[in-house]
């Protein structure tokens, strides 16, 4: 095995609030430097050599994952206008093929498509494999058709930096038009099909401007419809399901503001502001027609921590607010979708997602019931203003992804498809449950557990365990099925999720208690969860691997410093481990936007001191026995730059950590490699390392 690369120490002083920090590995930030590229390639070579003995296991795991997947498959068709839209995959192909077929009038039952069988009347709109040909990376961004179904737009990214180029195709002639819009974010057609609305980013990678492109004209003639100058706010846009309004939304992590443009009028006219922005107030809206009147259903958190739902007149949104669903502590309202005759309400209660139907005439909400104790459910794929069915997605740790249509007349759930898991998978062979750990301050922290029954119940004897966590941005790690995870479970591993503060699992306060100057709760909660798994006999420190990615990678770095003795290994994907350096530099992508989440250490000495006390890179401890560590990153990641794990790994080695690996994808972004087979191989690499760390590589 090769010796681990040693990064040269080069003094780089950083002074803030009277504190000077010498950052010896900051030179690794020079992405265009041949020396930096050579160092990353040396890291990859070392990782390849250090894991060479796992090559047979990696291949076995890849074949297991591949063998469970029905490689030639189709999605459930979704009706839009006079067409059924769906995607399909073919064995041996990396990417999806997007198609449509004509729908019979008044037929809302999706056609039963058989994998591998020809689809009657199929029209291929876009073949991702053709688009990706000749490129090492491919990502499909926007994909839209006009309301009259005669035009299509799509956008592509071939670098992994999430910058897309929009193209347009005439679906009648098959001709790709001359219109080509580079450097875009989101994009979609106007309802009349004559124009495209799209967003662009500023130099800090922040979507900040909305543009109008008239098809057939030069991009240089595009009209700027809206620009958001505040560096803390993102911009987004969309069209209401009713097709009446363009909604322009701007928002930071804690504040939002929305505007309306009547699509029957002049798109270039000044938009109508709904509610002026107010620091700390978030809201979102849906257009509904109630008793013949245009109304806006607004979900907001003004004096309502877990949000409330109100209704206002669309032509006077700052007027009288009629409360539909009042604030109720512990019931976190998440979203509303308005349809012609009803609306759906998604909310979180007792740690689980729930979906209800809102009756416009009574304001009553009728919940949709599901049987499993742990599950995820949500409204998904309902483009039509009026339909006799409501499309829902459902999954759990043991139930593969499932698509239901709720019959709105009978309230019956009609099963449309459940992901086929090949190889004899039987959900009855596995189980899931919730456990609770006690944090240092007495808070009860939920843990989700999944295991294979043949190895006994958790706690019968100490077994290898895999503990996953995230804990930022109010993002919840909800129950979900994974074919790759079965390879762990079938070898006796217990999979666990620590639902730590900073996430959204237990309501908005749960998030508030794990951000800004409360961020340490996220880390100590995860440690408490690990300690609980050990104390009740579910696992032991020499058989416990922790995993997290992105902001969850920050969590991994922090717990490795706080409690290295608790873990045999730490898997950190695109880890945000040099958090203080990043958040101090407003010129870096997305930094200013992040101040609402982490605080502003550039201008606030208390925030600076607090972040410095936990940022993993600054807090690596000399002379400590660290667990095995695998850090995975991508050279073109614009969200968490490759330099963060590169510096962290260099510092860990300097401190004496003996088994630390860095794997850097040289052509990929924040989401890793593209293509399903490539993604499976990447996960097989990580799982092989994880199983080896747990002593299960044989």
Topology:
Blueprint: E1 13-16, E2 19-22, H1 34-50, H2 55-68, E3 73-74, E4 78-80, E5 83-89, E6 97-102, E7 123-127, H3 128-132, E8 139-145, E9 151-157, E10 164-170, E11 176-184, E12 187-189, E13 195-201, E14 207-214, E15 223-227, E16 234-239, E17 245-251, E18 256-262, E19 272-273, E20 283-290, E21 293-300, E22 308-313, E23 322-325, E24 331-338, E25 342-349, E26 352-359, E27 365-367, E28 376-379, E29 389-395, E30 402-407, E31 412-418, E32 430-438, E33 444-452, E34 465-469, H4 486-489, E35 494-498, H5 508-512, H6 520-535, E36 544-549, H7 551-562, E37 569-573, H8 579-584, H9 591-598, H10 605-614, E38 628-634, H11 643-654, E39 660-665, H12 676-693
Parallel strand pairs: 34-35, 34-36, 36-37, 37-38, 38-39
Antiparallel strand pairs: 1-2, 3-5, 4-5, 5-6, 6-7, 8-9, 9-10, 10-11, 12-13, 13-14, 14-15, 16-17, 17-18, 18-19, 20-21, 21-22, 22-23, 24-25, 25-26, 26-27, 28-29, 29-30, 30-31, 32-33, 33-35
What does this entry show, briefly?
This protein is an alpha+beta fold. The chain contains 12 helices and 39 strands. The strands form 9 sheets. Strands 32-33-35-34-36-37-38-39 form an 8-stranded mixed beta sheet, sandwiched between helices. Strands 3, 4, 5, 6 and 7 form a 5-stranded antiparallel beta sheet that branches.
Task: Please tell me about this protein's structure.
The protein contains twelve helices and 39 strands. The model has no long low-confidence stretch (mean pLDDT 96). Helix 2 packs across helix 12 and helix 6 packs across helix 7. A hairpin with a 5-residue loop joins strand 13 (195-201) and strand 14 (207-214). The relative contact order is 0.10. The longest helix is centred in the C-terminal third of the chain and has 18 residues, at 676-693. The strands form nine sheets. The chain has an eight-stranded mixed β-sheet with strand order 32-33-35-34-36-37-38-39, with helices on both faces. Strands 3, 4, 5, 6 and 7 form a five-stranded antiparallel β-sheet that branches. The protein is globular, with a radius of gyration of 26 Å. It is of the alpha+beta class and 698 residues long.
């Amino acid at each position: 095995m090769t010796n681990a690369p040693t990064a040269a120490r080069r003094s780089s002083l950083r002074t803030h609030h009277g504190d000077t920090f010498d950052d010896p590995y900051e030179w690794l930030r020079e992405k265009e430097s041949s020396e930096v590229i050579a160092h990353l390639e040396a890291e990859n070579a070392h990782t390849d050599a250090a894991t060479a003995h796992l090559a047979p296991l990696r291949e076995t795991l890849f074949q297991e994952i591949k063998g469970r997947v029905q490689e030639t498959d189709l999605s459930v068709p979704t009706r839009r206008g006079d067409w059924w839209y769906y995607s399909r995959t073919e064995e041996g192909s990396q990417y999806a093929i997007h198609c449509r077929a004509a729908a019979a009038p008044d037929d809302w039952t999706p056609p039963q498509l058989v994998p591998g069988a020809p689809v009657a009347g199929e029209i291929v709109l876009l073949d991702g494999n053709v688009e990706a040909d000749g490129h090492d990376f491919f990502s499909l961004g926007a994909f839209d058709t006009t309301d009259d179904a005669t035009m299509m737009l799509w956008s592509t990214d071939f670098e992994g930096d999430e910058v897309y180029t929009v193209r347009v195709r005439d679906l009648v002639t098959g001709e790709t038009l001359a219109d080509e819009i580079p450097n875009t974010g989101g994009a979609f057609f106007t309802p009349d099909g004559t124009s495209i609305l799209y967003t662009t980013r500023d130099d800090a990678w922040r979507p900040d401007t909305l543009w109008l492109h008239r098809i057939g004209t030069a991009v240089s003639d595009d009209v700027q419809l809206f620009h958001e100058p505040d560096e803390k706010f993102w911009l987004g846009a969309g069209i209401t399901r009713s097709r009446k309004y363009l909604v322009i939304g701007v928002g930071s992590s804690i504040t939002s503001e929305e505007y309306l443009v009547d699509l029957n009028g002049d798109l270039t006219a000044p938009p109508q502001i709904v509610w002026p922005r107010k620091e700390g107030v978030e809201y979102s809206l849906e257009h509904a027609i109630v008793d013949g009147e245009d109304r806006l259903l607004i979900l907001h958190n003004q004096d309502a921590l877990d949000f409330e739902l109100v209704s206002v007149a669309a032509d006077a949104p700052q007027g009288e607010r009629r409360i539909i669903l009042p604030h109720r502590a512990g019931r976190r309202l998440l979203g509303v979708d308005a349809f012609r005759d009803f609306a759906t309400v998604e909310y979180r209660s007792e740690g689980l997602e729930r979906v209800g139907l809102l009756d416009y005439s009574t304001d009553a909400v009728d919940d949709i019931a599901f049987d499993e104790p742990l599950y995820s459910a949500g409204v998904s794929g309902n483009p039509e203003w009026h339909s006799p069915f409501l499309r829902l997605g459902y999954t759990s740790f043991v139930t593969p992804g499932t698509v239901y249509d709720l019959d709105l007349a009978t309230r019956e759930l009609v099963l449309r498809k459940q992901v086929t898991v090949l190889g004899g998978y039987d959900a009855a062979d596995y189980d899931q449950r919730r456990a609770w750990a006690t944090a240092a301050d007495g808070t009860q922290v939920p843990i989700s557990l999944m295991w294979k029954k043949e190895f006994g119940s958790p706690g019968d004897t100490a077994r290898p365990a895999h503990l996953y966590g995230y804990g930022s941005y109010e993002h919840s790690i909800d129950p979900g099925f994974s074919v790759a995870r079965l390879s762990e479970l079938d070898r006796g591993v217990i999979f666990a999720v620590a639902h730590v503060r900073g996430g959204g699992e237990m309501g908005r306060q749960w998030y508030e208690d794990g951000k800004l100057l409360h961020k340490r709760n996220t880390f100590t909660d995860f440690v408490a969860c690990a300690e609980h798994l050990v104390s009740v006999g579910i696992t032991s420190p020499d058989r416990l691997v922790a995993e997290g990615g992105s902001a969850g990678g920050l969590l991994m770095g922090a717990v490795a410093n706080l409690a290295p003795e608790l873990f045999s290994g730490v898997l950190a994907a695109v880890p945000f481990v040099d958090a203080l350096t990043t958040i101090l530099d407003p010129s870096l992508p997305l930094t200013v936007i992040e101040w609402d989440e982490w605080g502003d250490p550039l201008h606030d000495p208390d925030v600076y001191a607090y972040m410095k006390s936990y940022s993993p890179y600054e807090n690596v401890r000399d002379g400590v026995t660290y667990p095995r560590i695998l850090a995975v990153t991508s050279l073109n990641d614009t969200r968490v730059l490759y330099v963060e794990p590169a510096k962290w790994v260099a510092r860990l080695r300097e401190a004496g950590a003996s088994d630390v690996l860095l794997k850097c994808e040289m052509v990929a972004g924040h989401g890793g490699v593209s293509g399903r087979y490539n993604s499976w191989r990447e996960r097989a690499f990580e799982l092989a390392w994880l199983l080896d760390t747990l002593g299960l590589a044989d």
